[in-house]
Design a protein that fits this description.
- The structure holds 2 protein chains of 2 kinds.
- Chain A is built from 5 helices and 14 strands.
- Chain A is α+β, with helices and mostly antiparallel strands.
- In chain A, the strands form 4 sheets. Chain A has a 5-stranded mixed beta sheet. In chain A, strands 1-2-4-3 form a 4-stranded antiparallel beta sheet, covered by helices on one side.
- In chain A, about 25% of the residues lie in helices and about 30% in strands.
- Chain A folds into 2 domains: about 80 residues, Gyrase A, domain 2 (2-Layer Sandwich); about 150 residues, Cyclophilin-like (Cyclophilin), CATH 2.40.100.
- Chain A is elongated and about 60 Å long.
- The longest helix of chain A has 17 residues.
- By secondary structure, chain B is mainly beta.
- Chain B folds into 2 domains: about 170 residues, no CATH class; about 110 residues, Cyclophilin-like (Cyclophilin, Beta Barrel).
- In chain B, about 10% of the residues lie in helices and about 40% in strands.
- Chain B has 3 helices and 19 strands.
- Chain B starts with a strand and ends with a strand.
- The chains are: A alpha+beta, B mainly beta.
- Chains A and B meet through strand 1, strand 2, strand 3 and strand 4 of A and strand 14 of B.
Chain lengths: ~250, ~290
């Protein structure tokens, strides 16, 4: 069955070799499914000048290696594939990842801020944060940095009044209604509640990036001892990280 | 692997670049690559190199290189007052360098960014498929004092080559560039947008990530913040201050501010070569 005209994404030529397709204006599951599905269609049907795709919450930007001489034909081609594609696409097709996070005092520098703002106990914060599946909507800001949806409302905590000059890689934080993991050492204003022994981005590793858009992830609380054990194991063989990607 | 230069003074924003690192933007890695890709490409062309041979890029001058081996190089891009052992050397024309000589760049005469490349290109580790340095992403190191730069191969015995005069780019300090419209134009007040396309903006400063502009501030209907989406080299982003920023080769892959559009590729190098105080006007391409 063909979909109705209203469901076509809005297409726009944004440069000599870029097309932008827009699927909505909000962070919504429905919009996200369309983005994911369109990414797959664009990868398969953009021809040999296809360079890469950058998804966001609500858009897909397709880059081409060369200037598009007939951009409208390309848009039409992709929209036709979109119309003719099958309906189903769900989280079940995505990778499921379990991320060990140590919420120990050693790392959770801003736990007091979070508990006093939310009125929750430390244990409640951990169980709400870890007891939830997050979707990786997109990667950006830093190499390998995942934009996750969606933090439990009760955990929402405003960012620090003054950002820290350096937050170390692997740090897990809450910033407003967002949560995430820093993929590199960098300045940051999120409330730090824990740390993962995983390195999300290692340019020299066979798989340089741990996350990709669409991944479904869960945080798994680990003790300080377990944290160090995993760190040690990964230090001796960074490729071991593959073990944590469940199918 | 031939030691070619010892860096005696690192200058401003010096780094090894090639044509960039496409393919990893969805993982948050900027494309990077030569800012003035036009001058860079011409450099490899003049030398008879492959189009993607790495070269040294730097801004404004102040750089000093000790020559460690006899070789042949070309300087392209901005005229930064190059001198070899005190004698002026030309851009856009190969010349021989000899062990013990010193190559310095004294001051910006025309343009902002120059390239030094040897025959066969510089030798540099490829990370994620490119030699382009992007220190923020742990991809290579910027130019530092005492660093040694290597050439991939020895000098050949061919004749010197240069670019014919008509092909040599001129770097004006007052440029007009074409702009592809952005999907966010309806976020700006309409009269503010038409003002933008009628006014002149000045370069206030910048680096490989972006150039800050100063001029008539843009006005929004409801603030600049948008749901983050893809940005690219040439995107004109406008934060809540209303003063535009042109994203450059190390542009972040996604951004959360409204954009006006993207500068046409054929005009991009003209903006790249503007220095602080340089002027730029924008012309909207037909929508």
């Amino acid at each position: 069955m063909n979909k109705s005209y209203e469901q076509l994404p809005e297409a726009m030529i944004t440069g000599e070799n870029s097309l932008r397709f827009s699927f909505g204006s909000r962070v919504e599951k429905d919009t996200y499914y369309k983005v994911r599905k369109f990414c797959k269609i664009a990868e398969q049907h953009s021809g040999h000048y296809f360079q890469e795709i950058v998804p966001s919450f609500h858009t897909v930007t397709v880059y081409f290696k060369k200037e598009l001489t007939e951009p409208n034909e390309m848009i039409e081609r992709l929209l036709t594939k979109w119309i003719n594609s099958k309906e189903e696409e769900s989280e079940r097709m995505e990778r499921k990842l379990r991320i060990p996070v140590c919420y120990d005092d050693t790392f959770s520098l801003d736990m007091d801020r979070v508990t006093s703002h939310t009125g929750l106990t430390r244990e409640e914060v951990i169980s709400l944060h870890a007891g939830h599946t997050y979707t990786v909507y997109m990667i950006g800001f830093l190499p390998g940095f995942p934009y996750l949806g969606k933090l439990h409302e009760r955990l929402e905590t405003p960012r620090l009044p003054t950002p820290r000059e350096k937050v170390s890689r692997g740090t897990v934080g809450i910033g407003g209604s967002q949560t995430g993991i820093y993929s590199l050492d960098c300045p940051g204003g999120w409330n730090i509640i824990g740390k993962t022994p995983f390195e999300l981005y290692v340019p020299e590793r066979k798989e340089p990036f741990f996350f990709q858009a669409g991944d479904q992830l869960e945080f798994q609380p680990v003790t300080l001892g377990e944290f160090h054990e995993i760190s040690k194991e990964l230090a001796s063989d960074p490729e071991e990280i593959k073990r944590f990607i469940a199918d | 692997m031939i030691p070619l230069f010892r860096v005696k003074k690192a200058g401003v924003y010096g780094s090894i670049q090639d044509m960039g690192r496409p393919g990893y933007q969805r993982f948050g890695v900027p494309v990077s690559g030569a800012m003035d890709f036009h001058a860079f490409r011409l450099g490899n062309y003049i030398l008879g190199n492959d189009t993607n041979c790495p070269g040294l890029e730097f801004f404004l001058g102040g750089i000093e290189l000790e020559i460690l081996n006899n070789h042949r190089i070309v300087i392209t891009g901005a005229d930064l007052g190059a001198k070899l052992d005190g004698q002026p050397v030309p851009n856009w024309k190969t010349f021989n360098i000899y062990q013990g000589q010193t190559l310095i760049f004294t001051r910006p005469v025309q343009g902002s960014i120059a390239y030094v490349m040897p025959e066969g290109g510089l030798l540099s580790e490829e990370l994620l498929g490119s030699s382009s340095v992007y220190p923020k992403g742990q991809l290579g190191s910027p130019l530092k004092k005492e660093m040694i730069l290597f050439a991939r191969q020895e000098k050949s015995k061919t004749f010197q080559r240069g670019l014919c005069r008509s092909e040599i780019p001129e770097y004006s300090a007052d440029v007009k560039v074409k702009v592809w419209a952005s999907p966010h134009l309806d976020r700006f007040q309409p009269d503010s947008l038409s003002e933008f396309f009628q006014s002149t903006y000045q370069i206030k400063g910048g680096d490989r990530m972006g150039y800050l502009l100063e001029g008539t501030p843009l006005r929004f209907i409801n603030g600049s913040d948008i749901l983050s989406e893809a940005t690219q080299f040439g995107t004109i982003q406008v934060p809540n201050s209303g003063q535009p920023i042109i994203l450059m080769a190390d542009a972040q892959t996604i951004g959360g501010y409204s954009t006006i559009g993207k500068i046409a590729r054929e005009d991009l190098w003209k903006v790249v070569q503007l220095r602080r105080g340089g002027k730029v006007r924008f012309e909207e391409l037909a929508r």
